[in-house]
Amino acid sequence: MHIPLQNFYTFFVVCRAGSMKEAARELHVSAGAISQRMRELELRHGQRLFERTRAGVTPTAAGAALYADIRAPFQQIETVSRRSLADHATRQLVVSVMPSLASGWLLPRLGDFASRHPDVSLSIDSDARVVDLKNDAVDFAIRHGLGSYPGLESRWLMSPEMIVVGAPALLREGPPIRCPADCLAYPLLHDGERRDWSLWLQAHGSASPKARRGISFSDEHLLVRAAIEGQGLALVRDIYAGADLAKGHLRKALEQQWPTQFGYYLVGLRDTFAASGARAFAQWIQAQAAQSRATAALRR
Question: Where do the HTH lysR-type domain residues begin and end (predicted)?
Answer without folding.
Answer: 3-60
